[in-house]
Amino acid sequence: MIDLLYLAKPKYGGWVSLTAHLSLLRKYPIYKITKTTQTRNRDFGYGATYQNINIETLKNSYSDDYVPLITCIDKHFYHILPHICDNTKIIIHDPTELKPELLKYLPNFHIIVIRKSMKKLLKEKYNLESEFKYHPFFPFDKNQEEPTKDGAISISRVDFDKNTHIIVNTNDKLSIPIEIYGSCNDLYVYHKLRNTKFKEYYKGRFSKCFNELSNLLLNKKFMVDMSSIKNDGGGTQYTFLEAIYLDCILVLNEKWVNNIESIFIDKYNCYVVKDDEELKNILEDNDTTLNNSIIENSKKILQNNLSEDWIY
Asked: Which helix (H) or strand (E) holds 210?
C-alpha cells in the first residue's frame, strides 16, 4: 500500500501536477500533514482528492507493508523529517530543493528523481544514490474532434526559472502574440516585467482541471516553454508532456536542452531557441512537413511516461 504525502504549500506547478497524475494513475491516496486528522476528501486539483492527517496518525501508520511516498517537500515541512521512518521514498524534482535542512536527512531516504540530470548531480556533488523514473502521466480525456491548430501559448508559471521575459520580448515583435497563462511570482513580475507589455499579453491563471488545460492547448500549434534551471534539464516537465499529448509543437530553451542527458533534439522532436529573435523566427515560419514530423517524433517521448510503472 502506498500513500502520497504532499508536504508543501504551492497549489500550482509541477509538484501538484506530479502528485495528481500519480494519484490518478495508480489510485494512490493523497495526504497533507496538518494539526488534526480528518476523513473528509478535499479537492486537490485535476480530479484528484486529498485528506488531512496529523504527524501522529502518520507515525502510527508505519508497518512492514506500509511506507509512504513523499511527492515533494518545502521549508514549511522540514520539521517533520525527524519523524519519518528510514527508507521512506521521496521525490526530488530539481536542484533548488537541495537545501541544507533537507540534505541533512536525505541519506535516510529512498530518493527518486524524474530527470537523469538530477541523478547525476546527487551522485557527483552529494554522493547520494537515487532511482530514476519518468514523470508519471495520466492519459486524461481530451476533445477528439479535429482541432484547427494556430498560434502559440505558454502555460508554465511566470517566474525567474521560466524566463517569461523572453516570451514578452518576442511578443513585441510578433503580429499574433504568444498567449501567456500561469501563476505569477509577484517578485519576478516586479523586477523583470514591470516595464514591459506583460499585462497586455498575460491571460491569467487557469484552473487545475484537465478539461480547461485541453481547451487551452488543443487549438494551439506551438507550446513555448523557456525554462532553465542550473544543474538541471534535458528531461521532461508537465508542460512539455501536456503539450505533446495534445499535439502541440514544443519550443524549448537551449539552456534546458543543452544537457548530456537530453532527450530533446532540435527539429526532430521540438524546436530549440536561445533568444527572442530565434523564437520569433520559429513561430513565423510555416514548414508544415517539418512541424508534422516533430509532432510525430515527440509522441515517442510520451510513451516512456505512459509506460513507467510507479508501482511499489
From this structure: helix 210-217
> Based on the number of CB atoms within 10 Å of its own CB, is 47 exposed (0-12), middle (13-18) or buried (19 or more)?
middle
Q: Are 110 and 130 in contact (CB under 8 A)?
A: no
User: Between vectors from CA 206 to CA 200 and to CA 211, what angle results, nearest 5°?
Assistant: 130
Whole domain around residue 32: which residue ranges? 4-132
Asked whether residue 145 is domain-assigned, the answer is no
Helix (H) or strand (E) holding 69: strand 69-73
Q: Please check whether residue 147 lies inside any domain of the structure.
A: no
Identify the three-state secondary structure at position 122.
helix
Whether residue 198 sits in one domain with residue 298? yes
Query: E strand or H helix at 14, and its extent?
Result: helix 14-26
All residue ranges of the chain with pLDDT < 70 are: 1, 144
Q: How many other CB atoms are there within 10 angstroms of residue 303's CB atom?
A: 11
pTM: 0.94
- Residue 286's pLDDT is 85
pLDDT computed for residue 1 by the predictor: 59
The amino acid present at 201, given as its one-letter code, is: Y
In this structure, what C-alpha cell is assigned to residue 168?
A: 514578452
pLDDT at 253: 98
Q: What region does 227 belong to: left with phi over 0, alpha with psi -120 to 50, or beta? A: beta
Q: Tell me if 102 sits within 8 A of 78, measured CB to CB.
A: yes
Q: Please tell me whether residues 302 and 158 are part of one structural domain.
A: yes
Tell me, what CATH number does 25's domain have? 3.40.50
- CA distance linking residue 34 with residue 47, whole number of Å: 22
Task: Report residue 213 as a C-alpha cell.
Answer: 488545460
Give the C-alpha separation, 18 to 33, whole Å. 18
Retrieve residue 187's grid coordinates.
Answer: 517578485
pLDDT score recorded for residue 311: 84
116 and 13 housed in the same domain: yes
